[in-house]
Specification:
alpha+beta, Ubiquitin-like (UB roll), tRNA-splicing ligase RtcB, 2 domains, eight-stranded mixed β-sheet, 21 strands, DNA-binding, GTP-binding, GTP binding, RtcB-like_sf
DNA sequence: ATGTGC
């Protein structure tokens, strides 16, 4: 008889698993000296680091293996055994609960018309909406594209359930836009190269843990430090599609300028980054392949949300610190930003400067949004209240909204958890006021559109788009495909500098070969098509655009 | 996306 290959996993954390080869000579009798049970427990101790394995369940069914008969009938190739230190089976009970809340007909809205959408992402969107518990509404934004399991550029609204894997590991990832005092003449054309040269000292850890903890503390004393292991990445952009980009406002026509103060010809810094390793550690801590959903009010749901909120704050503080480090390079004359440079040394009062730097940075910030997060909002959205100053054209209420009824201060309201995975919100999360502008970045070097969300009866006041918009152009090609096809296409060319004839081009800092191609504009959809789809869906207006002048991905400081 | 997971 051949050996049997089974998988063992921790009952309490099923992502922890190991294969076990059971020789034909091992005994099904749990009391035998060479029992399968003994072999499984020994492997659980060494490979899963479970000190005292005591009970064994079969994955999916949850049947406990007790008698020799149980072992004999269940040990076959590819079976998954869940090893417990005494606790009850955690897998299947959830799956049974799940069924009653699944909505196989929940509504799926696709906001893509011109932008191309891969069929795999549609399958992922629909399958997810129809199989996870509590989903009442799903939206595919025009930048929709396939993820490993769940789609990106997607929004899921669910009642009574939280699904951490829907938003992924980069909890709190988003974009923040900051004004600089640079003039466009300092960054236009060939000047971009000079500016790019100034962007140094931006890789690696920022100062000491004491500084970082202070940066992660707000003026009320709340702090979102994740411990030195994760905080050491604070102030770094990261990899993948993350970037910081210097842009010029080429056109802008805001219909209701809420004192944002953005003007044509301004030079702005767009920072796209997240919670680095911290958010991933939160997802990993709470979920496994078999544990993806938490019922509202359960200890897991509350504990996850607490850590989730912390990761969101961390990510926001990370974007601010990235901006500070960039401003230290871009505006060297401003003492508020000196702290951003690791070259500036302080005796013992450096930490005191943090409050000043943060205070001076906030007025520079135009907008800061999370596009990977889960948020509780009143559902369905209702007609928003009018602004205090009534607009002259009241029929245009969709453009002149004061505040949305999204907070739960009207007790009997129904609400949902909006899960955003690569989707921007249409409102300010803390004030619940509609955003008057938000960025829709194209891929590296292509225009960033300036969006203004629209709330109108035609879109049921934001229900149609689940109070969300596209967060970027969206991938048109997988990383693997982009790497192979684009490295061929641009063989022997430097695609990081504008061609000498191109005065409108972008200077790109990207000292990582694979990223050069994986993040090339050709790997993404056309941002104009994505923007047009939002306009055609009636969920946003395009009120202007920015030209990218210097795009910073990653620098090899050793050069 | 990630001090990835083998």
């Amino acid at each position: 008889m051949p050996a049997t290959r089974v998988t063992i996993a921790l009952n309490s954390k099923q992502s922890q698993k190991a294969p076990v080869i059971i020789p034909a000579s091992a005994s099904t009798d749990p009391a035998a000296a060479t029992s399968i049970r003994g072999l499984v427990f020994k492997t659980a101790q060494s490979k899963l680091r479970l000190k005292k394995p005591t009970r064994v369940y079969v994955g999916r069914t949850g049947q406990e293996l007790l008698t020799e008969e149980d072992w004999k009938s269940n040990i076959k190739d590819d079976v998954v055994l869940l090893i417990s230190a005494g606790e009850e089976y955690v897998g299947a009970k959830k799956e049974l609960d799940v069924h009653s809340d699944v909505n196989p007909t929940s509504f799926v809205e696709i906001l893509a018309f011109k932008a191309p959408v891969e069929s795999l992402s549609l399958t992922q969107l629909t399958t997810t909406a129809h199989t996870l518990p509590g989903i009442v509404h799903a939206v595919g934004q025009p930048d929709l594209h396939p993820g490993t399991k769940f789609p990106i550029g997607a929004v899921f609204a669910s009642k009574g359930w939280i699904h951490p894997p829907l938003i992924g590991g980069d909890i709190g990832c988003g974009m923040a836009w900051y004004k600089t005092t640079l003039s466009r003449s300092q960054v236009d054309g060939g000047k971009g190269k000079k500016v790019a040269e100034k962007l140094r000292g931006l890789e690696g850890a920022w100062r000491t843990q004491a500084y970082r903890e202070s940066w992660l503390q707000d003026d009320q004393g709340h702090n979102c430090s994740a411990g030195e292991q994760w905080d050491s990445a604070l102030g770094t952009i990261g990899a993948g599609n993350h970037f910081a980009e210097l842009q010029v406002v080429e056109e802008l026509s805001l219909t209701n300028d809420d004192g944002i103060g953005l003007r044509q010809d301004d030079v702005v810094l767009l920072v796209h980054s997240g919670s680095r390793g911290f958010g991933g550690s939160v997802l990993k801590k709470f979920t496994s392949d078999l544990r993806t959903s938490f019922e509202e009010g359960s200890p897991d749901a509350s504990a996850y949300m607490k850590e989730h909120d912390k990761a969101c704050e961390w990510a926001k503080a990370n974007r601010d610190l990235i901006a500070l480090r960039f401003l230290a390079c871009l505006e060297p004359g401003n003492v508020s930003w000196h702290l951003g440079s690791s070259d500036a040394h302080y005796d013992d009062d450096g930490i005191k400067m943090i409050a000043m730097a943060k205070k001076n940075l906030q007025p520079r910030k135009l907008v800061d949004i999370w596009h990977n997060n889960v948020e509780r909002v009143v559902w369905p959205p209702s007609a928003p209240s009018l602004p205090k100053k009534a607009p002259s054209n009241t029929s245009n209420v969709g453009r002149a909204v004061d505040k949305l009824t999204l907070s739960d201060d009207t007790p009997p309201a129904q609400y949902v958890y909006i899960h955003r995975k690569g989707a921007a919100p249409t409102y300010n999360a803390s004030t619940h006021r509609p955003l008057s502008l938000l960025p829709l970045p194209g891929s590296r070097g292509t225009p960033t559109l300036i969006l203004q969300p629209i709330f109108s009866e035609a879109t049921s006041w934001g229900l149609k788009n689940a109070l969300s918009l596209a967060h970027g152009a969206g991938r048109a090609m997988s990383r693997a495909k982009a790497l192979s096809s684009l490295s061929q296409k641009y063989k022997g060319q430097n695609i990081l500098e504008p061609r000498s004839s191109d005065i409108e081009g972008t200077w790109v800092i990207c000292d990582e070969r694979n990223l050069v191609f994986e993040e090339a504009p050709d790997a993404y959809k056309d941002v104009q098509a994505v923007g047009q789809d939002l306009v055609d869906a009636g969920v946003a207006s395009v009120v202007g655009w920015c030209r990218a002048r210097v795009s910073y991905k990653v620098r090899n400081e050793a050069h």
